[in-house]
Design a protein that fits this description.
Number of helices: 21
Low-confidence stretches: 1-36
Radius of gyration: 27 Å
Strand content: 25-35%
Strand order of the largest sheet: 2-1-9-10-11-12-16-14
Structural class: alpha+beta
Largest sheet: 8 strands, antiparallel
Mean pLDDT: 91
Shape: globular
Number of strands: 39
Amino acid sequence: MKTIIKSFLKFETATALFLLMSTTLQSQSNKVSSAGKITSIQNALHQPWSSLFYIERKNGLYHMGDSGSQYDKNHDFTHLTFDISNNKVLANMGIQGTLKNVTMYRDSYFANCGPKEGGEGGWPGVWAGKDNSSFGPYSFSLNIEGIHYDLDKVNWDFKTGLLHNLFPITEFYPSGKQYKITVIAYAPISPDGSNRIRGLIYGLLLENNSDKVLNGAVLLPTLFAGERQTYKEKNNPWSLFDPYDYEIALGDTEKSKDSVLFHLEKGQSVWVPAVFSMLGDHAIQEINAKHTLNCLQETHQYFRKILGKMEIPGNPYLAAFYERQVMEAFGSIAMTAEGKMAGSNWGSYPTTRQIWMKDCFYSSLPFMQSDPFLAKILIAWFQQFGVRPKGNYQPGGVNHSVGLSVSSIILASQYYKCTGDKKYFTQNQAFKNYWDDLLKQLISSRTDSSIWLFPSRFISDGPIEADYHTGSNVCAWVALKGFADLLREVYNEPKLAQNYLSIADKVHAAIMKKCTIDGPYGRQFIEGVFRDGRKPSMISDGEESDITLMPFYGFLPQDDPTYLNYMKFSVSANNAIYEPNLYAITWFGVPSTAPGYLKGICAGVNTNELFADHGYYNEVRKVTDADGSIWWWSYGWAKEFIKNGLTISKIPTPYGELTRGVPGKSGWFSGIHTVLFLNRFIGLSNNDFNNTIFFKPMSVIGDFSCSDFPIGIQHYSVSVANRNHTILAGFSNPNKTLKHLEITLPVKGVQKDIKVRINGIVQKKYQRIHFMGDDAIKLQLDVKGGANASIEIE
């Protein structure tokens, strides 16, 4: 095969690349078709698992799938879960297949959230809460040949991981037995995402591989499990007892059963799907109408629709990790039974009643591009909840947290750039009036009429000490420019659009002038500045992410030196809160905080900076847990030596000694990583204003392909390969309409006298530029609907 491809490339490179892309896409299409033809749950559960994200127990010894993670040394599994959600339901599966927790959401509301130590009036970044039921644990039991086995307590070997890198799944291997037990959890979603059933399928498959008949029964999980069963025995008052639990029914049947008898000949199996639902819902009827196997396949189709399929042969971790971050951000988001937004958690574990607003915003960002249905309800929710209301303890208003106040406009502008969906905005004229009024309040809030910057009291929970916070003003710029675009493109108000655009330009200029300093690497941004010109604090907060997102927002290019210098400063000893021994940014004494690692990723422009032993993607890999998630504070709480009630000194945290469960998984990190990885490393972005897709991959990623990748309501495929000093790139437009493509390709290793071909035809019109530390070629072309483009540079 290699010889054939090499021959093609030598004589008919463009044609060969087209065929190679077509073969790849056809192969992936066949996989989808094959998945669609699966007729048994047994075959469905025998599909591939993630090769990196799993944990197994063999002969009493535990081992993680990715040896690059330092969590492999941590055998406290109390908080290690493999999670799945459809936004209405969230399930957290423990390492032995037990559902540690199942959550079903109801609704969200304004609330003064947080204890006294969170500040007067509670935590400043939390002014909404949500109602939900959240119970557990739940596990199956079996009676096999007269012996009772509780799967939560058996000491068998097992492996717990992710089917298709998506669904939590556990296989048990009973010692000396020739049968296998598999449990899986999934929450049904229709392929287009429009129908999410508020129900969970927790299924068990028992396969008899022996020569003997296997007899017994599978017992469904019981209600009021764990500590809730012994509540009265602990002398707790009945008035505080939570008397609620879910309905648990056997799926794929209308019969009411709490156990299933089996008589299995050699090679036979039994499937026992337990369905969790809320009393009064019709989840069991909906699931039975579809059948649990079809529910699994449709849910898989939905996730592939919002994920596409990414392959990076030289670094499989990056592709698998990308998918897990999308799933983590997705699992953070909550939805009501009626399909409205109900806020979010920190991440997919644990479930919180409070809604940290900034976490919710960052978790939402990826879905402006990948799921139009979810995007629209997220925009509507932030339009309702984004501005903190006036209260007795906090004055609230647009300047409480500027970034959150304008969050609905930021999301809306991103959604429109990806989709060009004018209908959604014209059907919601109230949005325009609300945003116009909101931005007028923001503009009038300036404390100095000569400075086009806006004050903000908080980012999330952290107070802003300086007069002007850089990231908050970046958000203001995004909102002003984004609203101007909507006024011009959707609402046909060019005069008002130009007014807002001119203000956005003034804000941009003010940020570049007032919010930059001469730093250790040259001109750089700084987090906050003072009106009187005082020297700003030389810190870069790990939990300040809007400067990190500048290129994604369109504020400046990826390789802008002011931006790169700030990122280098952030992850250096020049940053007063950087912890060099941990290669991490601290936060109020906490040794490391998850979003800080993103600044390292954005500082790196070459292989050594990103993938060396202490390169920043490698540091992220080291703190990636077995399920592919990132904990908020992977080194735990601040450790201090206490003597006579006084804090004497901080105890240094040893590098690599990681903690789980503090305080939870980070959807903030996941949402930002998702959009940064696509925008910065894969280099994909879209501007529907001028029908253009931008493709500017970084050379450090190496060869890769992204097939059936979602951008709004359409999907595309791209690929890049380097073959014998020849750069090969492909773009496939399977949609009905023409798309303009602007592509920038690194040409490291290509000779000075280059030849550029598009579909085999030599091109004269191209630009030689410098991009992300590499020489590059910039091309523009139109790709008709249903057509492919192959680009060859040699």
